[in-house]
Amino acid sequence: MNTQRLLIPILISVVIVLSGVSLLVGPADLGPKDLIASLSGTSDEVTQTIFWQIRLPRVLLAFLVGGSLGLSGAALQGLLRNPLAEPGIIGVSASAGFGAVLALYFATFGMAWSVSVAAMTGALIATLVLVFLAGRDASVLTLILAGVAINSLAAALTALALNLSPNPFALADMVHWLMGSFADRSLDDVLLSAPFILFGSALLLTSGRGIQALVLGEETAQSLGFSLLRLRLVVIFGSALCVGAGVAVSGAIGFVGLVVPHILRPFTGHDPARLLWPSILGGAALLLAADCLVRLLPGGQELKLGVVTALIGAPMFLHLIWTTRKYMR
Q: Which residues of the chain register pLDDT less than 50?
């Protein structure tokens, strides 16, 4: 019980510390004194630009994207009652990626935010297919299979676009974007994604009691007054908004929605409702730490964020499986 009460304050403290570190890490050698001077408005114009136009958007996007991915993973695992569920399982992430790749393929740079708009359009199409299935009172298994099919189709179409890329420069842009990054993002990207992510997160947070009731089974949840159709629509639509908007501004970032809920679940008493808020903070902390790491690693070129989260997430997930295998028998 004490651990559960302390979990949120601890995670908030970790996020605050990592946010401060993220503001200080980068090619420019700036320290806490420069940050304080920038906050007070007494620093030079270059320092102000570095902190508020380059590093602050990365911090805000790490919190928004990481938090929404962690929350989506926790909500989907509760809804589908599947510990392997994560945002990619419903196909929205891959569909958003395909939309962005399509925009890069045709080089539609004449329209502002064309890549982001195309990514969110791809996410919307995938969501409508799943909502259509959920609207017909589909089973959980049907939703999972539909998500897998949508994910596979979007991945195949993305690979086709990469294979038929009109020039090597467009191909490089596509590959770099698909690997995920907060580099060269601005406050405009934050303003573009924030409304969708915040609205989607609000929807997911309202599903806590419903997915908590699902632990007892679908029939019991219905007898307690919860509409399974409404619950599925809320979780699917909320996850789609969060993931689609996140992919639209940062590219594809994996493993956050899968690993974070698994790490935090024992500290919440395995209660899916209590897991939601900690997953937001845990996802934000993971992406803040990963984004700091990509800027600290030696080398002339910054490592992509999606690569780092995969390198961190995959071994961590294997370790979790290894340590809990005796309970899975």
A: 110, 327-328
Count of residues for the chain?
A: 329
Query: What's the CA angle centered on 307, arms 196 and 190, to 5 degrees?
Result: 25
Residue type (1 letter), 135: G
The pLDDT tens digits for 130-155 are 777 766 666 777 777 888 888 899 99
- CA-CA-CA-CA torsion for 131, 136, 140, 142, nearest 10 degrees? -90
Residue of 62, 204, 81 lying closest to 141 (CA atoms): 81
Phi-psi region at 31: left, alpha or beta (left = phi > 0; alpha = psi -120 to 50): beta
The position carrying tokens 């601890």 is 10
CB-based burial of residue 201 (10 Å sphere; 0-12 exposed, 13-18 middle, 19+ buried)? buried
Cα(329)–Cα(321) distance, rounded to whole angstroms?
12
Rounded to the nearest 10 degrees, the angle between the axes of helix 140-163 and helix 92-105 is 20
Angle at 60 between CA 59 and CA 66, to 5 degrees: 85
Kindly tell me the sign of the dihedral angle through the C-alpha atoms of 165, 168, 170, 173: positive
Burial class (CB within 10 angstroms; exposed 0-12, middle 13-18, buried 19+) of 171: middle
List the one residue out of 289, 287, 67 whose CA is nearest residue 197: 67
Q: Are 92 and 129 in contact (CB under 8 A)?
A: no
| Token pair for 48 | 């102000």
Decide: helix, strand or coil at residue 82.
Answer: coil
Residue range 210-247, pLDDT digits in tens: 999 988 888 888 888 888 888 888 998 898 889 888 98
Q: Are 65 and 288 in contact (CB under 8 A)?
A: no
